[in-house]
Specification:
The structure is a single chain. The protein is built from 18 helices and 19 strands. A hairpin with a 5-residue loop joins strand 4 and strand 5. Helix 5 runs parallel beside helix 18, helix 16 packs antiparallel against helix 17 and helix 16 packs parallel to helix 18. The longest helix is centred in the first third of the chain and has 34 residues. The structure holds 1-deoxymannojirimycin. 1-deoxymannojirimycin (DMJ) binds next to helix 18.
């Protein structure tokens, strides 16, 4: 009993101590003063952010899985030990081998650029320095980095992707540069590259950077018609047009090729300013009278009148046609105005520019200068095989599908002939059709190859649409030719004359070799559901935007 009584006292003492601790701890509890309210808000915001992030992450992984991208990177040992040409033991016909081959080309181009020109716009592989063309401002704006970032991600080169991402986050700033930038090139390479990187990764840093750059371009649209000027000074924001462009005109391929990027940017920022600019351009284009249904390459942004009548699906015109079709696709076929403009434009070019060679009936798109037909086709114009193939994939009318397929196949074949008839298996900048020439250059000024993608791009689309194995073989031959003739000890170079086996290099590794040429090569050796064409639209620089739901 005595023991129990002691126990009771101990229990009571214990309770008293606990009560004391409780009472004194009350003074340490947060009161509802301002700091506490703020800290609670902060916690709530953090929780919400975390929820949003994990939702974003979930959506992102779903997207990645669906697009079958970001394959695990090659182990660095595998990458370092092998050059693209050193796959002697493997089965060269296997798709995995060919994808590896192309991935290694990208690794090599990237590492060379990283070693000798990091931050510069492009690499001079022979001089082992940076290079900057007049389309970029002077300064280190890293065109190669921004143009390559989505390719690196798609190929699963994730270390390189992280290098690119970090550079973009910490260094990409046009305000640190000086001089003029091309509105078109900045849009398709920089804004396009950043938006595609965002689409693939959901990383909003890319949107922030794309928005900063798009805002720099906005003064170009301050013209009486709203049709943008070609160039903007990065420091002053002053826009102007190229001196050579038909008395102060804007260029069709340039002002007609901002739609995808600006619409997508408005969608993801909820800021309509960008969409308004390109919608106004669209209104001008659709309201204009077109001579014989054709679009001249020059338009005066002050008067809204066409300039010199030069019509071409090559340089100065090309991507205008491409963006009409792709704007319709990007909108999930809702933008019927774009499709109507596309349909009318292709009827006109097929009627007036599509020709067949006398010798072997090779199809080509000629150019028109005034009323004179120039029987010349640019390497750039070979993109049109891919455009028609994409139309085939999406066209409703069977009769139109067959007509478009015929043109796509014929043009891809002609472009292949331009490669076949050179000394190195790579085609020239432009080729002619005369009584003596068929799909070859006749002037020394047209014999160069600057790593352009359009021919391979056309074969890629045709492969996806027809599954004719010849397109994969042609791509493979082109990849090997690029490896053999464009590869220098420190990166890839353009070639001055494709008709000479002893190549002379031009000492520039173009940013689009990774953005486009290597990307399309990689994709042609991948399954159709890797960046499926029903899910993604590639801008004219090969940057992928997701088709609107
Ligand atoms: C790229 O910048 C784009 O493909 C553009 O549409 C045309 N020129 C180059 C590649 O040839």
């Amino acid at each position: 009993m005595g023991f129990r009584c002691r126990e009771k006292y101990v229990l009571l003492a214990g309770l008293a101590v606990l009560a004391l601790i409780y009472i004194s701890s009350l003074s340490y509890l947060p009161s509802d003063d301002e700091a506490t309210v703020r800290s609670r808000q902060w916690i709530r915001a953090r929780e919400n952010r975390e929820k949003a992030q994990s939702f974003d992450r979930m959506k992102f992984f779903e997207k990645v899985e669906k697009a079958k991208i970001a394959a695990p990177p090659l182990s660095s040992k595998t990458v370092k030990q092998r050059n693209a040409t050193e796959f002697v033991d493997d089965d060269q016909t296997s798709l995995a081998y060919r994808r590896d081959f192309v991935r290694n080309m990208v690794k090599f181009a990237w590492e060379s650029y990283h070693r000798y020109a990091w931050g510069a716009n492009e690499l001079r592989p022979l001089s082992r320095t940076g290079h900057s063309a007049s389309i970029f401002a002077s300064g280190n704006t890293g065109a190669t980095i921004v143009d390559s970032v989505d390719t690196l991600f798609i190929m699963g080169l994730l270390d390189e992707y992280e290098q690119a991402r970090a550079w973009i986050e910490n260094n990409l700033d046009f305000k640190k540069a000086s001089g003029d930038i091309s509105v078109f090139e900045t849009n398709i390479r920089f804004i396009g590259g950043l938006l595609a990187a965002y689409a693939l990764t959901n990383d909003k840093m890319f949107v922030k950077k794309a928005t900063e750059i798009a805002d720099l371009l906005l003064p170009a649209f301050n013209t009486p018609t709203g049709v943008p000027l070609a160039i903007v000074n990065v420091q002053t924001g002053t826009p102007h047009n190229w001196g050579w462009a038909s008395g102060g005109c804007s260029i069709l391929a340039e002002f007609g090729c901002m739609h995808l990027e600006f619409i997508y940017l408005s969608q993801i920022t909820n800021n309509t300013v960008y969409a308004k600019k390109v919608n106004r351009v669209r209104e001008v284009i659709s309201s204009l009278e077109k001579p014989d249904g054709l679009y001249p390459n020059y338009l005066n942004p002050k008067t809204g009148k066409w300039g010199q009548k030069h019509v071409s699906v090559g340089a100065l015109g090309d991507s205008f046609y491409e963006y009409l079709l792709k704007s319709w696709l990007f909108s999930n076929k809702q933008d019927s105005q774009a499709k109507k403009l596309y349909d009318d434009a292709v009827v006109a070019i097929e009627k007036q520019l599509l020709k067949y060679s006398k010798q072997n009936n090779l199809a080509y798109f000629a150019e028109m200068k005034g009323n004179r037909v120039e029987h010349k086709m640019d390497h750039l114009a070979c993109f049109i095989a891919g455009m028609y193939a994409l139309e085939v994939k999406n066209e409703e009318k069977q009769s139109r599908r067959s007509a478009a397929l015929k043109i796509a196949v014929e043009i891809a074949d002609t472009c292949h002939e331009s490669y076949n008839r050179s000394a190195i298996g790579i085609g020239p900048e432009s080729f002619r059709f005369t009584s003596d020439a068929e799909a070859i250059s006749i002037s020394d000024r047209e014999k160069y190859y600057i790593q352009r993608p359009e021919v391979i791009e056309g074969w890629f689309y045709l492969w996806r649409v027809t599954h004719d194995p010849k397109y994969r073989e042609w791509c493979w031959e082109a990849a090997q030719a690029i490896e053999k003739y464009c590869r220098t000890p420190n990166g890839y170079s353009g070639i001055r004359d494709v008709y000479k086996k002893e190549v002379e290099w031009d000492d520039v590794q173009q940013s689009f070799i990774i953005a486009e040429t290597f990307k399309y090569l990689f994709l042609v050796f991948s399954d159709d559901d890797v960046m499926a064409l029903s899910e993604w639209v590639f801008n004219t620089e090969g940057h992928a935007f997701p088709i609107s739901p």
